Amino acid sequence: MTAKRRPGRYGLRFVALGYLAMLLLIPIGMISYRAFEHGFAAARSSVTTPDALHAFYMTIVIAVIAVVANTIFGVGCALLLVRSNFRGKALLNAIIDVPFAISPVVVGLSLLLLYGRTGWFGDVFLNNGIQILFAMPGMVLATIFVSLPFVVREVVPVLHEIGDEQEQAAETLGANWWQTFRRITLPAIRWGVAYGVVLTTARALGEFGAVAVVSGRISGQTETATLWVAREFGQFNTTGAYTASLVLALIAVATLLAMNLFKRKEAS
Amino acid sequence: MTPVAPGARAEAPPRPVAWPRLGGAALGRGLVTAYLSLIVLIPIAALVAQSIDGGLDGFWTAVTSPLAVSALKLTLISSAIVVAVNVVMGTAIAWVLVRDNFPGKAIVNSVIDLPFALPTIVAGITLLALYGTNSPVGIDIAFTRVGIVVALLFVTLPFVVRAVQPVLLELDQEMEEAAASLGAGPLTTFRRIIFPNLAPAILAGAALAFARAIGEFGSVLLISGNLPKTQVASLFIYAQIQSGNDTGAAAVSVTLLLIALVVLLVIGRLTHWTLRHDR
Amino acid sequence: MRTSFWKPENLASRTAGGGSRRRVGRLALVTALSVAVGVGVAACGSSSSDSGGPINLVAYSTPETVYDKQLIPAFQKTSEGDGAKFSTSFGPSGDQSRAVAAGQPADVVHLSIEPDMQNLVDAGLVDSNWDQNQYHGIVQDSVVVFVVRKGNPKNIQTWDDLIKPGVEVVTPNVFSSGGAKWNILAAYGAQIEEGKSPTQALAFLKSLLEHAVAQPGSAGDALTTFTSGKGDVLLSYESDAIEAQRAGEDVEYVIPDDTILIETPAATTTDASTQAQDFLKFLWTPQAQQLWADGGYRPVNKSVLDKNKDKFPDPPGLFTVNDPSIGGWEKANTDFFDPTNGSVAKIEENLGVSTG
């Protein structure tokens, strides 16, 4: 039986791996070649200009804010969805998925319409000298939007799985909700949370479309790494663009490793 | 990642428990609502308001302008192609990863998530470096519709694979062996035994891939070349924003969002139905 | 049996009457918290727009190098510019104008076409007399040229050569790029100058856009597309062509006999600091004009231009946007670039639809 299916199996293996190689591996290899085409020193100096370093710094700061905000929200929201019942729960559930269904450019446009000079809140903020668009807050709002669902969606199934017997037991023994959360719930969901955090980080680090609309591309100020890559690509600095791409790809690989680690921990 | 289509979640009815104790839930509900309003709902409300700024007529005119129609059409057709390829290749890859054994399988398995972790603009530059004008392998698909499809295939790769994989892992192989011992060929076994079991997962993965594909921006930005014939909806919206046509941009955005939500909802229901139908 | 513990009536009975008061309290807390979140988000964005802040320069994409490497350092060495700090933003002209109108901080704006400046006048951000100086608000000029591969393998010399079979053209997207609009006006005007009728000139535009193999978002992206190997000819600013040659790219350029004089406007916004106004004035000084010339841009200062005459040959059929063949920006913007009724929009629609 298995012997009979052998050729088919090899064929399928060949097709699947060939597809992956063409689509993923060879292109990534090409990027490293292009980055170091003119030597390691050229690659290094192309991404260590103050603007480039600041762009990476911006990316990290924005990602950290987005991750913290969405993790706190995500855990709370997941608890709400799993451990309580209320009117509008299905709606809440649906709204959380909206960021999956929306184009990043549209996210940027929404913020533009809301906080732009002629937007609903535009006057209020601008007249008080508060810059939302073309500054950090707008970019943070955009990034939080696109990376919102991940923690919720990772924690909900874990909460379902662990059930609430232990939580109830803790309460019977007189623990308050914070103690219950800290001692019982959190340890049980920690790998789910960690996995969600990794996904949120990956999404936040790579965000491009939404921040492209609201950043205003002020060099050394409101430019993230992805925006920097896009701009340098159009400015004869292809080495810089490829090298920064490679750095981002390496961060992506590190993210993958973290994902695998947490997935394994979650499973065990 | 573990993609889950909305509605596809098998939800155990929550039991009435006193958790967290008094005060928590109402406060929590308020905070969650406030956060979602600030981040998601109010911006979308502003978008919808702008799209009907010139009345429903204005909305309709904007959405039915020839360039908007061709952009939406191109988006839907290329996304449909991408989903079809993903259903076949994604299932094949999942199959190879679960049922096959070869050296390096663990690495291949983790590489699947790379398109998710890789910034989309990097994905675009990457594909352009290999399949662009200076292609070292002699394949030039830059600034063509084929290029757009390839970029979309890249970013949507994980969805079907990651949806099918866990189901395939849990699938009982005894059924297949039984079918085989009753004389069914591999194709019949796949069609009659395996596929019905995988269908809900494939559908869920396909829905997410479709939703992702119709909104994709970063990876297609550089590869499309912005020609009228390669302008997908997200690029059209971006061009409209840049030329100051906010209403046109908002109208197409709302259309795009509605399509994505409807697809996610319908497939969610469908998956639900298939699951129930099976059991 | 699904009973909701959190239903108000359940809550009220459990807390024996204390519920409603608590709920009000909670509601207040929720409101307070959401306000706090909003203020917190806002607070980290409050920027100092006082006179002590940097000069915000918002400009179109191509002069980035000249500003960063030449003009800004030179200004900082003058007495007016002593200690001036800059924060710069470069991108497609239309996009930059749109962003400033939506609230991006800007003291000095330098755009590639006048209508983008008009946007800011309409938004009340730039004074309507911005062009009331001896240079009409224009800081530097350029011309539309054909950038070709080294040795000009397809022997492209005239506009008609662009629409020969098999010639691939790269020009930026007209909806976002000011440079693209100059290209279109140059192509159209050249036809009129050569004695064609407006209908024939529009037909030429149509075949030209049919030959376009890419329409990147900005002039800068178009240049990268071309230098990476796509296309036989790039329609571009003369200044970009010069910069590309300097960067060691294997390209050369041809100035067609009939072409348009590109005039790029700059202005300060209504609430710009004195130092920002000084910077704008500095851009017209002979020193700065020479720096523009060194960067490949044609100076608007006559004497500086004359000194650099050999670098910038005058094509015999040079025309401006105000010549009768075009009829001024206002007319051109409606006739050609109106997103719904403009002739270029119509051509693009046909290209999108016919192949769709």
Please characterize this protein's 3D structure.
- The complex is a heterotrimer of chains A (268), B (279) and C (356).
- Chain A has 268 residues and is mainly alpha-helical.
- Chain A is 80% helix and 0% strand.
- Chain A has 13 helices and no strands.
- The radius of gyration of chain A is 23 Å and the shape is globular.
- The relative contact order of chain A is 0.14.
- With 279 residues, chain B is an all-alpha fold.
- Chain B has 2 domains: 33 residues, no CATH class; 225 residues, MetI-like (MetI-like fold).
- In chain B, helix 3 crosses helix 9 and helix 9 packs antiparallel against helix 12.
- Chain B is globular, with a radius of gyration of 22 Å.
- The two termini of chain B are 27 Å apart.
- The N terminus of chain B is likely disordered.
- Helix content of chain C is 45%, strand content 16%.
- In chain C, strands 1, 2, 3, 4, 5, 6, 7, 8, 9, 10 and 11 form an 11-stranded mixed beta sheet that branches.
- In chain C, strand 1, helix 3 and strand 2 form a beta-alpha-beta unit.
- The longest helix of chain C has 25 residues.
- Chains A and B meet through helix 1, helix 3, helix 4, helix 5 and helix 7 of A and helix 1, helix 3, helix 4, helix 5 and helix 6 of B.
Corresponding CATH superfamily of the largest domain in chain C: Periplasmic binding protein-like II
Topology as H/E string of chain C?
HHEHEHEHEHEHHEHEHEEHHEHEHH
* Number of structurally distinct domains of chain B: 2
The total strand number of chain B stands at 0
Radius of gyration of chain C: 27 Å
**Proportion of residues in helical segments of chain B:** over 70%
- Assigned CATH architecture of the largest domain in chain C: 3-Layer(aba) Sandwich
CATH architecture of the largest domain in chain B: Orthogonal Bundle
The greatest interface between two protein chains, and residues involved on each side, is: A-B, 100 and 97 residues
| Class based on secondary structure composition and strand pairing of chain B | mainly alpha
The CATH topology assignment of the largest domain in chain B is MetI-like fold
What distance separates the N and C termini of chain C?
A: 56 Å
Count of helical segments of chain B?
Answer: 12
Coarse morphology of chain C: globular
Q: Portion of residues in helices of chain C? A: 40-55%
Provide the low-confidence segments of chain C as ranges: 1-51
Largest sheet of chain C: 11 strands, mixed
Q: What is the typical, i.e. mean, pLDDT of chain C?
A: 85
Which regions of chain B are unreliable across 5 or more consecutive residues at pLDDT < 50?
A: 1-22
Do you know the CATH topology of the largest domain in chain C? D-Maltodextrin-Binding Protein, domain 2
β-sheet strand percentage of chain B: under 5%
